[in-house]
Amino acid sequence: MNSDNLVIAVDGPAASGKGTLSRRVAHFYGLAYLDTGSLYRGVGWLMLSKGLSPRNVEEIEVAASTLTLEQLDNADIRTPDVGRAASVVAAIPEVRQALLQYQRQYATNPPAGKRGAILDGRDIGTVVCPDASVKFFVDAAAEVRAERRWRELFQHNNSLTLDQVLDDIRRRDTRDATRTAAPMKAAQDAHLIDTSLLDIDAAFAAVRRVIDKALA
Ligand code: CDP
């Protein structure tokens, strides 16, 4: 395989560990990293902060196609409310279309002279970068993911219960996996990494074995 313009696609459900893994891969292999969920979270945040209805597709599409990182300065996009709003706007085909070009451009022309890019999300291996050099689908049991997310969120909001977080994750998984537009699923040629029983070092070692083999 040509190691010029290496593109790595990482998909998987909420709190599966894909973000931590992707950042580590990016650092190790010198790749640019795009957390595509933050784009959908940005649109979800705009919907909430502008008081838009999810049925108002036109206004939400405008928010998606004019989204800039500056708009999200000081925006807290990591809250459960924004996660829920992100998954609602992510089911709108016009929103996905509006964000597609930016993601593809990032993958083919990574910033800062990097040798390639790693993108994580729900549809990277299936829709955004179907020709990616290497694809992963990172998963874990819902209970394990809920506990991870609850620990992260608890630092800022100690009134959230583990059950609430689990319920939220299950609803979001169902919405993401059953929507018609680019549903969350593993690409046929994705390598499955189940992090239920793996810590980050073990998961990274498993991912490295696959990438190194592809690069050899
Ligand atoms: O961090 P977490 O895994 O909780 O979620 P995220 O990656 O920030 O994504 C938030 C939401 O954006 C997801 O629940 C999806 O509905 C949506 N999303 C998507 O549809 N496609 C992507 N490529 C990335 C995120």
Brief synopsis:
With 216 residues, the protein is of the alpha/beta class. Helices cover 51% and strands 12% of the residues.
Describe this structure in words.
The chain is of the alpha/beta class and 216 residues long. The protein has a single domain (6-215), classed as Rossmann fold (3-Layer(aba) Sandwich), CATH 3.40.50.300. Helices cover 51% and strands 12% of the residues. The chain has 9 helices and 5 strands. The protein has a 5-stranded parallel sheet with strand order 2-3-1-4-5, sandwiched between helices. The longest helix is centred in the last third of the chain and has 17 residues, at 162-178. The chain starts with 5 loop residues before the first strand and ends with a helix. The mean pLDDT is 95. The structure holds cytidine-5'-diphosphate (CDP). The site of cytidine-5'-diphosphate has 16 residues, from α2, α4 and α8.
| Strand content range | 5-15%
Overall tally of domains: 1
pLDDT under 50 segments (min length 5)?
none
The CATH architecture designation is 3-Layer(aba) Sandwich
Strand arrangement, largest sheet?
A: 2-3-1-4-5
Number of helical segments? 9
CATH topology: Rossmann fold
- Could you state the CATH homologous superfamily? P-loop containing nucleotide triphosphate hydrolases
